[in-house]
Design a protein that fits this description.
With about 325 residues, the chain is mainly α. The protein has three domains: about 80 residues, Orthogonal Bundle (Arc Repressor Mutant, subunit A); about 110 residues, Arc Repressor Mutant, subunit A, CATH 1.10.10; about 90 residues, Arc Repressor Mutant, subunit A (Orthogonal Bundle), CATH 1.10.10. It has 14 helices and eight strands. Helix 5 packs parallel to helix 9 and helix 9 runs antiparallel to helix 14.
Length: about 325
């Protein structure tokens, strides 16, 4: 199996330095349900209730999280007309299952959407899938991304653009600290900070991954990630090795920063979660996943919210 292809064009901008905020994905879905070219309209500021730069940021986060997608039935669209994707409709549509991000599983899902594909924001995918060190600084990330841009032949990637992207990336996962010098707007944490995937380890801005078991990651969300990863990378194959799911760039093990023991626990439950479509076993010391039937990632995901509602009722 070939490695996931490197991006032809990097994505180091679009967020306008604003990390994703609560309510923005719901705003994006509602707005594009009403008008597919809403983000091009002069009254978008009024419709969305935010400033001009935030309008562009909401559009960006809607697209890179996969809750919005370009309208394929519009000739030469080039991002002008966009609408909710099936995932966006499932979560944030008129009958959305978690429109206000009340379920932590939705936060894990959004993280997967950001960091699980090379077509997403470059820094997010690269840091979670290719950074070798478990601890790092902003300067380390900058150096590595500059090298990546040079090796890939990407032009016009300025250091300042990379610095802003790194700052936004860290604000996505690391809770802000109260300070008299910090503007109130910048202390609004991104919902994904709740996951605790990246922690600030020292006062001199050293950061580290929290790798191991993540008790708040629901099995159906893991299964959704596994199915979509399988479809993207090896759709014609009916078997996957444990190592491919654990360590390959873009795999659930890498993106969710799971230890081998934690990953094994999720795989032990995959047959039940997928109603027998996917199973996991060990034969002659080889740990493998087997796909017996087609399985809808969205339908598996739906079971998580169905069970959650039963518990609340």
């Amino acid at each position: 199996m070939q490695p996931i292809a490197t991006q032809t064009f990097p994505k180091f901008a679009g967020h306008e330095t604003f990390a994703l905020r609560y309510g923005w994905l719901k705003k994006a879905v509602d707005a594009t349900l009403e008008q597919q070219d809403i983000f091009l309209q002069d009254d978008a500021l009024v419709s969305l209730g935010v400033g001009k730069n935030m309008v562009r940021s909401i559009r960006h986060w809607g697209l890179v999280t996969g809750v919005l997608e370009e309208s394929k039935d519009v000739p030469n669209n080039r991002g002008r007309f966009i609408h909710p994707s099936p995932l966006g409709d499932l979560l944030f549509g008129q009958r959305g299952l978690d429109p206000y991000l009340e379920e932590v599983g939705t936060l894990w899902l959004i993280h997967w959407q950001l960091a699980g594909t090379p077509d997403g924001p470059t820094t997010w995918f690269w840091v979670f899938n290719h950074l070798a060190e478990s601890e790092f600084t902003k300067e380390k990330l900058l150096s590595e991304l500059v090298t990546l841009a040079d090796q890939a032949g990407w032009k016009r990637v300025a250091d300042n653009s990379l610095r802003r992207d790194i700052d936004c990336f860290l604000r996505t996962y690391v809770p802000s600290k109260a300070s008299r010098t910090v503007v109130l707007e910048e202390t609004l944490d991104c919902p994904l900070a709740e996951l605790g995937l990246i922690q600030e380890l020292e006062a001199n801005h050293v950061y580290g991954f929290a790798r191991g078991e993540h008790a708040s990651l629901p099995l159906p969300v893991f299964a959704y990630a596994l199915i979509t990863y399988w479809e993207k990378t090896a759709a014609q194959r009916n078997a996957f090795t444990f190592d491919e799911v654990a360590y390959r760039p873009g795999s659930p093990g890498r993106v969710f920063k799971l230890s081998e023991d934690a990953l094994s626990e999720y795989l032990d439950g995959i047959e039940r979660c997928t109603k027998g479509a996917i199973s996991y076993g060990v034969t002659a010391g080889l740990r493998q996943l087997y796909r017996r039937n087609d399985c809808s990632a969205l339908e598996v995901l739906r079971t998580h919210y169905a069970h959650g509602r039963k518990r609340k009722s």
